[in-house]
Amino acid sequence: MRTPETPSEGPATRRSLLSRLCGWSMGGALVAAYGSAAAVAGRYLFPARPAGKRWIYVAQVASLQRGHALPWRTPSGERVSIARVGDGQSTDDFIALSSTCPHLGCQVRYESQHARFFCPCHNGVFSPEGKAVSGPPAEAGQDLVRYALRVDGPLLYIGLSERQIASAGQEA
Amino acid sequence: MSTLARWLGERVPLGRFDIKELTNEPVPEHLKRWWWCLGGTPAYLFIVQIATGILLAFYYEPSAARAYESVRFVTEEAAYGWFLRGIHKWGATLMIAAVILHQMRVYFTGGYRRPRELNWMVGMCLLVCTLTIGFTGYSLVYEQLSYWGATVGANIAASVPVVGPWMKTLLLGGEEYGAQTLPRFFMLHAAVLPALMICLLVVHIALIRLHGVTDLRFRGDESKPPKPFLFYPDHFYTELMIGLGLTVLLAALATILPATMGPKADPLSTPEVIKPEWFFYVAFRWLKLFSGTAAVLSIGFVLFVMFVWPFIDAAIRKYTRFAEASVWIGIAGALSIIGLTVWEAAVAH
Amino acid sequence: MSLDFKRIVIATLSLMFLGSLLFVQWMEVSRRRAETGEAGAHIAIPDSSRQCVDCHMQNTMGLVEHWKDSTHAESGVGCVECHQAEKGDADGFEHYGAHIAVIVTPNDCARCHPAEAQEFMASHHAKGGNILASLDNFLAEVVEGSRAPFDPHAPTPGLAPGQGLVGGKVNGMASAISGCQQCHGGKVAFVSTDGGHVDVDDLKPGADGKPTSQEALARIQRDPTGKPLLHPATWPNSGIGRLNLDGSRGSCSACHSRHDFSPRRARQPENCGKCHLGPDHPQKEVYEESKHGVAYRDLIHDMNLDSDEWVLGKDYSAAPTCATCHMSANTRNGMKITHDPGTRISWTNRPPVSLVLDTDVHGEVVKATDPAERAKLIEDTAQAKRNRMRQVCSHCHNDSYVNAFYAQYDEFVVNYNEKFARPGQALMKLLLDKQLLTPAQFDEEIEWSWYYLWHHEGRRARHGASMMAPDYAHWHGMFEVAERFYMAVIPQARELAEHAIANGKEAQGKAVMEFIDELLARPEHRWFEQQKKH
Predict the structure, then answer these.
(1) ipTM value of the model?
(2) Do C7 and A165 touch (CB under 8 A)?
């Protein structure tokens, strides 16, 4: 049992040629297959592109006045409050914050007299920039989600993911 | 080339012949039969699971607030994430199936008998680890079903007498499923259990190597001289073929039946139908048949019997006339496992 | 199993694995494409338009489906964004909680597309409604119909009483409404409380488009829900020079069909062919006969018509369409689209005698003859316009080729102008001055002949030459111009003159005869009667 038999193959010359060919093709195919599997894994580690963000029209720049928030809903129904924070025409003059409290999902509202967003459920308070100031969100360090905005000429656009664009009950 | 080889040879004193010696374990001829190659499949799948698992862990966040979202990110946004998650999910299913098949082969061919009783027990440990790692992995997704599956699992553990509550607390990191639970599951799934399984596998394989594989003789072959063949390349190629075949199957499953996202876990609403992963259907059905502690204890008892089976079998063979009893017991066990699984799969409650 | 056989099996399995990975790669790519909106992008139904979509999906689903295929839908521009009316707008009304208007005017589009609207307003297109006071309109409103409603001769069997009539009378404006105004644009009006019209002239809108005449507002007839009734004589209308209730002119949907506003469609010649075809200005047919049109039809799949941007020389170069040459961006003009198709045209072939298209600040052609005065008035020269067209041509043709083409074209137009148009125009003026014609148009045969000559045949010829369609330049063009001139206009003028001489207007008749004889004695016409005289 401890004397293994050497695998018997054909004459030396034929063997070297044929099985070398087989060996090469096997090696090549193996390297190609597992190599591309490794490439897939490598690509997976670079998700960099924020997938599927699209710019969706919100309003005309001129229709937004400083100090007033425009209540707006994404096509999927999420509430967003969009406000002008500067007098210019650039993207930095606007801010879009989710109206959904990160704590338990209640709807926050803007209180202009206190210049703050307030969540009535557990007295969560956020700054006008969406930063959690007090209440449970502040303890957990959960700010209001901020959306990207873009000014294109006279128009204001909001950056939404495909998920936020797909409306409820809409066919794919 | 030779300079490099010499440099390396000096620092790693391992010659080509040593490697040949190590790899070219002679393998008995019956291993040319496919049925005997099942042990390699769980090992190959285990490697696949480690590779894909590490990749998934790059994005996974084990907290109740972020777990679901991070799995969704992997599935929907990261490049090829859906594919890797699909491979991992199907790899788990195939691995458990392969473990069971391997165990059945060992069982029905009597491969666990003296002097290999200990290796059977190591194998049983591996089986339990595999099932546990499957359970914890499923719970990590934090879907409705996996959340409630984990809750039910923990409550089952709690019904074990004496140590039950303690086990539940250990598992959940508290009285109930909470902020501590997911990190715990994640540690078990991604660190503790894999490390344990690697150790067990080393022992498992070392014992095989030390004993050598049983040289089986089939009817009509008894008179022939043994014709062992080399592990490398012959048997290695066979295993490679099986591995590649499995990989193709996995890739096909992951693309045709991809891993999807169920509804997010909601601790306040229990779903109509709670089902664990398919490999727990047996136990789940059993628990429904014999509620409470009795069912849990009986499952524990069955596991214990399986664990010490080599000794029970030896006793039966020694003290009774039923030398072939193990075959019939095995068939009965397999049939009842299949029956319970199918039953659980077929009905909603 | 021999070792080599195993190696082959392993190689095969590896290739299968590789194949499945390639399939995975393909799935990933198509998934990405779907996500980034390159293929079958999700549309975004804005929350504000959800209700509109739900309801109109039931009763006017085609309209909603068109919108769903639009770029607007992809970018979250829904129903309300375009149809919203402001308080005080004459045509605003409450519609299930939204204050909207039916007609979307260029002012509405300008909210988001100001540059496009401005270019359009400056174009000849926007002035299409001016036809309402022109000769062509006389044809439709008087010659083809009747400005005053008239009594039918007899009831039409099968028609219900009153059907096809207005107040029991025949609507003589019907031809103008369904014909002229559907291309040129009509004057949109409400039904007034007494059944008449309330239009932009009554409403007197201010700069913001809101009406200033409360009296006119009060006269608008409304249905029980408060929706103002649009006069069926004026709506539906998508004519390009429509006179809207808010004082704006034009209709963007004339080219950018509602409700999908498809750039693809606006790029295709069929779009322009709604109006630019037929006996008087067959630009579409001329184009189709040309090498340009032939190439387009053949290479339509290389035209990249679905592309977001459509820059000649960058996104496509297979063939030009109407839009390519007259409107679209190209790599040599700074990739600038214009919504004024007149900015690249150097001749206007619209009038009887073609004019060099030097335009003044208002975009009107400068007709002055004195060079100094012209120089003072001209804002944009024909040469500048031609150079803009050359930028387009140069994507496929070299300078010498383009210059030679323009030489051919200029010479063709000048030949038409000098041989037939100018003499014909002078002859018609002479006949009118000598009172051998009534001031009324189209009541004498020669007026029809002359109209055919310049308005139909002469334009066909010039358009044929301008866009390289030889059959239109010659057989449908100059051949018929010549026949009309020699075989109709000249004999009919002579007949008018002879008739005048015989009826006591000898001086007038002789003046016309002399004019004709002098004209036909010119070298280019001498062939016509040379041999008859001797």
Answers:
(1) 0.80
(2) no
